[in-house]
């Protein structure tokens, strides 16, 4: 079925659920008015529907390939990318000083959501560039900014991030790529990186890599990692691409999904690189990019949840099968209670995950405007949004296949691609287990102050709503689980981290549905009642798992596990 951009849904969420008016009240974003945002989202939605969505299947059927050392991209991707760049959609939040629109992260998040639903493999390219721009804006020298940011912002060039090595996956501190000073202010980068999304292409004038590497005599672990900018082509003083750098794509990974996105093994052989930020402080600089990407990957989950839901509803509306047990039915499988259960769950979960991502984006915008409380709130919401958003995308892509029945298992319907494409989102940019450990570890280092402030706000708001009693009660259960987490050692927290995070997300999702019900009429109220009655109670079991800690996880020896 054709993809439909949910522009009206974004308007509703921005106006009634996530408080976007607070963003336009800041000096930095006063011009990003609702009327301007509506016009921008309408135009972006049209591009996603008409230009990007038709490319989705082509990327899956005709993957990117490596040909004589050059990455050849999927049919139509070059034209699709250029359309995004010409419309200014590749880097909307970038600083106007370097050609960006300076729009709030919240608006970029809406556009990324639509572009990802239309063609996730292609949207991953500008997402990487958006993160690199933010990292360079915060940590790059004036010279680097002046040379690279206009090209990255315009979409003439694109960016990547290079963390992972064969022996150093989630344990970034184990990386071994070397950076040797060249004596002229540059460094020579040598090593291999794997899983590099969009490590090369055949439609941008240059590819700019941010690479983590070690200087000579650097401390071990993450405290000895520095960040370097390593372009594919070394620019001339006027910014035109010059000679080729000493790097290459060794191979492309053969993947479960996202076939249109070339995932590269990169080899650096004394490549010229420029230090970004301070020596041995590369992780701090890279995390600027990674936190941006974690919101982006949360939205990947939402994008696929939306696309899968649209496809499932369209199929169920047309498919005739079985004898209905309801009066005045449609004559289609929409009459069957279990199909209705799945579709209601898909709509309710998509709404909650999208609201959480936009809530996080609003807090990021307010934090960048100087609100320290919102910055702390954004830090708490980031791992929750990333994990819940991506798990929701996976669950709903799977559920969409189920709604289609046997046809869901047939590739020609296109719905199996959603599940294959989104599955990696729970893994990259920090696995969802790592997100959960971050939530109960680093995000509790303040003694739980920021988390408890968030729970206080949920409890107070839910208590004032006519449907809010179960939500306020579950917020109390979240408070108790949080207090118990704070009293435990780190590994016990880690043993219950994932269910704790998912229970937290359930409570937040219920709050967003309450806000929607208060503003949006009977249909919004019906969806809120469904979520609160059928999905929110899952949090009881999740918090029970969180309280179980880690002890029983070690009750079987390695030999017994393998038996």
What does this entry look like structurally?
Among the domains are: 7-153, Acyl-CoA dehydrogenase/oxidase, N-terminal domain (Butyryl-Coa Dehydrogenase, subunit A, domain 1); 159-282, Butyryl-CoA Dehydrogenase, subunit A, domain 2, CATH 2.40.110.20; 448-557, no CATH class. The model has no long low-confidence stretch (mean pLDDT 95). The protein has 18 helices and 11 strands. The N and C termini lie far apart (47 Å). The protein is globular, with a radius of gyration of 24 Å. Strands 3, 4, 5, 6, 7, 10 and 11 form a 7-stranded mixed beta sheet that branches. A two-stranded antiparallel ribbon has the order 1-2. It is of the alpha+beta class and 563 residues long. It is 55% helix and 12% strand. Helix 3 (34-52) crosses helix 6.
Question: Could you give the topology of this structure?
Answer:
Elements: H1 7-17, H2 21-24, H3 34-52, H4 56-61, E1 65-67, E2 70-72, H5 77-86, H6 105-139, H7 142-154, E3 157-162, E4 178-181, E5 187-197, E6 206-213, E7 226-231, E8 233-235, E9 241-244, E10 247-252, E11 263-276, H8 282-318, H9 337-368, H10 372-404, H11 415-422, H12 432-440, H13 449-463, H14 469-486, H15 490-495, H16 497-535, H17 538-547, H18 558-562
Helix pairs in contact: 1-16, 3-6, 6-7, 6-8, 6-9, 8-9, 8-10, 8-11, 9-10, 9-16, 10-11, 10-12, 10-13, 10-16, 12-16, 13-14, 14-16, 14-17, 16-17
């Amino acid at each position: 079925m054709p993809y439909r951009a949910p522009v009206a849904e974004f308007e509703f969420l921005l106006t009634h659920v996530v408080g976007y008016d607070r963003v336009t009240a800041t000096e930095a974003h006063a011009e990003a008015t609702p009327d301007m945002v509506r016009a921008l989202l309408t135009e972006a939605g049209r591009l996603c529907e008409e230009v990007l969505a038709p490319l989705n299947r082509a990327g899956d059927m005709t993957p990117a390939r490596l040909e004589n050392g050059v990455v050849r991209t999927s049919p139509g991707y070059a034209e699709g990318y250029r359309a995004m760049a010409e419309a200014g959609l590749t880097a909307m939040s970038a600083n106007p000083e370097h050609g960006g629109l300076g729009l709030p992260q919240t608006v970029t998040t809406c556009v990324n959501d639509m572009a990802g639903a239309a063609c996730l493999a292609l949207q991953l390219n500008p997402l990487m560039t958006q993160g690199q721009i933010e990292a360079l804006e915060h940590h790059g020298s004036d010279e680097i900014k002046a040379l690279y940011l206009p090209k990255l912002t315009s979409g003439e060039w694109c960016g990547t991030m290079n963390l992972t090595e064969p022996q150093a996956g989630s344990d970034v501190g184990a990386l071994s790529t070397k950076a040797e000073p060249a004596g002229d202010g540059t460094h020579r980068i040598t090593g291999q990186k794997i899983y590099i999304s969009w490590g090369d292409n055949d439609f941008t004038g240059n590819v700019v890599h941010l690479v983590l590497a070690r200087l000579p005599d650097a401390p071990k672990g993450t405290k000895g990692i520095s960040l370097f900018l390593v372009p594919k082509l070394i620019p001339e003083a006027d910014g035109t691409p010059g000679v080729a750098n000493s790097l290459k794509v060794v191979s492309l990974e053969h993947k479960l999904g996202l076939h249109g996105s070339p995932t590269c093994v990169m080899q650096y052989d004394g490549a010229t690189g420029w230090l970004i930020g301070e020596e041995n402080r590369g992780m701090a600089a890279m995390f600027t990019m990674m936190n941006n990407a974690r919101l982006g990957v949360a939205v990947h989950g939402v994008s696929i949840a939306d696309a899968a839901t649209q496809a499932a509803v369209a199929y169920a509306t047309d498919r005739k099968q079985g004898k209905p047990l309801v009066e005045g039915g449609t004559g289609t499988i929409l009459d069957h209670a279990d199909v209705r259960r799945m579709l209601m769950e898909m709509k309710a979960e998509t709404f909650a995950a999208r609201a959480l991502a936009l809530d996080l984006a609003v807090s990021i915008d307010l934090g960048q405007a100087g609100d320290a409380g919102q910055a702390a709130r954004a830090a708490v919401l980031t791992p929750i949004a990333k994990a819940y958003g991506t798990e929701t995308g996976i669950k709903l892509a799977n559920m969409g296949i189920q709604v289609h029945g046997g046809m869901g298992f047939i590739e020609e319907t296109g719905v199996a691609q959603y599940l294959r494409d989104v599955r990696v989102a729970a893994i990259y940019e920090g696995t969802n287990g790592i997100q959960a450990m971050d939530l109960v570890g680093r995000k509790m280092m303040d003694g739980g102050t920021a988390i408890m402030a968030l729970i206080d706000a949920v409890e107070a708001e839910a208590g004032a709503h006519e449907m809010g009693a179960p939500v306020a009660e579950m917020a109390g259960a979240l408070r108790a689980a949080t207090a118990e987490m704070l009293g435990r050692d780190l590994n016990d927290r880690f043993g219950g981290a994932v269910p704790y995070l998912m229970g937290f997300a359930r409570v937040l999702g219920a709050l967003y549905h309450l806000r929607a019900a208060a503003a949006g009429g009977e249909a919004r109220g019906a969806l809120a009642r469904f979520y609160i009655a059928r999905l929110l109670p899952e949090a009881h079991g999740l918090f029970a798992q969180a309280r179980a800690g880690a002890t029983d996880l070690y009750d079987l020896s390695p030999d017994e596990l393998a038996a």
